[in-house]
């Protein structure tokens, strides 16, 4: 039976502190942190008048303009699973592939497991997405209503027009929407978010859906952070996802059920020993400029292929420096943070120069070096794939340091052009979780 009371879940965004590029290969690991910025999904049934039959799932994202997607669903032939189709609602609504693919995957999984035991159908339901403001850099109005008027802003734009800050909105969205669908439609005996088994199911399903929606298989670190929060991550073998036909194609449903519960996943996610010292915060600065992760990844991998010996030497050494930083952070050795990060940055710059990819470009080196001079800042990196669009800082977690960093970034932006802005988000340990529905007063009727 679907849940008759509304339920809410949230999943965190990510900051990729160490191990970018290396993590694409299972030989190496990444040090990834979850963030206090979350994507929340509230699930509730749609009540219909007596005698009225509705088979519709509505997903909406009320912080944005033209962001309501209505879907019909049917059983695809030849065990193709549940196929969803966006219903036209008059206006010119963009499709949302991440939402659509997530629905196909989660509904097919639900139908193929629990619903197989009974002649169940999907009752109409609504899933409302609410994202913490730091995911987007647009100016916004904070005139919301309810208990929490400033937590979720209204953005004066469609999602397509939103400027993302790179916190992994699609991974957090796919994870929390999948968790909301499983929680809403399945009894607790079949899916419980609070158990290791529940998290495993969610992780596998969200990874598969996210890869399908993106049209590529990345390392999956962002889904791991969304499910488990801060962790040391070793990726799954890309071959894990080879067995799965496109959603709706013949054989999709049994292949998906087998994949999600199967033993082929060789992901290795460790939470123990991943933390920052007490009194220290991992913070992000948005730098207003975008980079092209896909072509950067392609170029770095080409360099690696053409220079197997040199690149291996560099990656092996970088891996051991990354692991050392993880140990220093979890053991709270404050004095060692700065030199350890400096050593990592040296090798990141070497990788950038050798592959001719701006991983830590000169403008970011200047910015990070100048930030290090701000009292209370230990050091910082260009997170993930690097480029021009963000820096992550390890700094003291107090108001005075925050103020100094904000003053610094304001001055830096003025003197150097562009926009550097300290976001409110901080590194946080916890992954996906259930939320109290009261958090969303004023947003759901
Ligand atoms: N609040 C939201 N409501 C509905 N869909 C969203 C929302 N936020 C993100 N999405 C979906 O995720 C897509 C953005 O995903 P994309 O992978 O481009 O960005 P990202 O995950 O934030 O980036 P990065 O991996 O660089 O951090 C949007 O086009 C939309 O489909
Ligand atoms: C380069 C890479 O290792 C990290 C990309 O991270 P981000 O999208 O820059 O946060 C790619 C991946 O892990 O899928």
Automatic annotation (TrEMBL):
Q: Has keyword tRNA processing?
A: no
Q: Name one GO biological process term.
A: farnesyl diphosphate biosynthetic process, mevalonate pathway
Per UniProt, residues of the GHMP kinase C-terminal domain are 342-405
* Pfam families per record: GHMP_kinases_C, GHMP_kinases_N
GO MF term (any one): ATP binding
Q: Looking at the keywords, is Transmembrane helix present?
A: no
Reaction(s) catalysed (UniProt annotation): (R)-5-phosphomevalonate + ATP = (R)-5-diphosphomevalonate + ADP
Similarity comment: family membership: Belongs to the GHMP kinase family. Mevalonate kinase subfamily.
- Provide the protein name: Phosphomevalonate kinase
This chain's source organism reads Xylaria multiplex
């Amino acid at each position: 039976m679907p849940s008759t009371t509304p339920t809410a879940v949230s999943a965190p965004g990510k900051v990729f502190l160490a191990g970018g590029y290396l993590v694409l290969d299972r030989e190496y690991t990444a040090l990834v942190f979850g963030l206090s910025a979350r994507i929340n999904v509230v699930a509730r049934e749609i009540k219909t008048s007596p005698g009225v039959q509705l088979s519709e799932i509505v997903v909406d994202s009320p912080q944005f303009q033209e962001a309501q997607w209505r879907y019909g669903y049917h059983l695809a032939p030849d065990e193709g699973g549940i196929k969803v189709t966006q219903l036209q609602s008059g206006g010119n609504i963009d499709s949302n592939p991440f939402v659509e693919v997530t629905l196909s995957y989660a509904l097919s999984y639900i139908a193929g497991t629990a619903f197989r035991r009974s002649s169940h159908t999907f009752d109409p339901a609504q899933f409302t997405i609410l994202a913490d403001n730091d995911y987007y850099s647009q100016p916004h109005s904070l005139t919301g209503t309810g208990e929490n008027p400033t937590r979720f802003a209204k953005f004066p734009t469609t999602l397509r027009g939103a400027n993302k800050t790179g916190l992994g909105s699609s991974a957090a969205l796919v994870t929390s929407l999948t968790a909301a669908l499983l929680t809403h439609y399945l009894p607790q005996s079949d899916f419980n978010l609070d158990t290791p088994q529940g998290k495993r199911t969610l992780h596998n399903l969200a990874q598969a859906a996210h890869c399908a929606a993106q049209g590529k298989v990345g390392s999956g670190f962002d889904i791991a952070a969304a499910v488990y929060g801060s962790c040391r991550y070793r990726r799954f073998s890309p071959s894990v996802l080879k067995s799965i036909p496109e959603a709706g194609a013949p054989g999709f449903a049994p292949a998906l059920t087998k994949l999600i519960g199967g033993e082929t996943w060789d992901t290795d996610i460790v939470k123990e020993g991943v933390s920052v010292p007490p009194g220290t915060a991992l913070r992000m600065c948005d730098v207003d400029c975008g980079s092209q992760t896909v072509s950067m990844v392609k170029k770095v991998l080409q360099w690696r292929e053409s220079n197997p010996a040199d690149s291996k030497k560099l990656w092996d050494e970088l891996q051991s420096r990354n692991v050392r930083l993880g140990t220093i952070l979890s053991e709270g050795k404050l004095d060692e943070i700065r030199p350890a990060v400096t050593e990592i940055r040296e090798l990141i710059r070497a990788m950038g120069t050798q592959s001719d990819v701006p991983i830590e470009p000169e403008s970011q080196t200047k910015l990070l070096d100048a930030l290090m001079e701000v009292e209370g800042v230990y050091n910082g990196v260009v997170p993930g794939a690097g480029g021009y669009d963000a820096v992550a800082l390890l700094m003291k977690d107090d108001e005075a340091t925050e103020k100094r960093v904000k003053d610094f970034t304001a001055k830096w932006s003025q003197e150097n052009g562009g926009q550097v802005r300290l976001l409110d988000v901080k590194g946080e340990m916890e992954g996906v979780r259930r939320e109290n529905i009261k958090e969303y007063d004023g947003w759901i009727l």
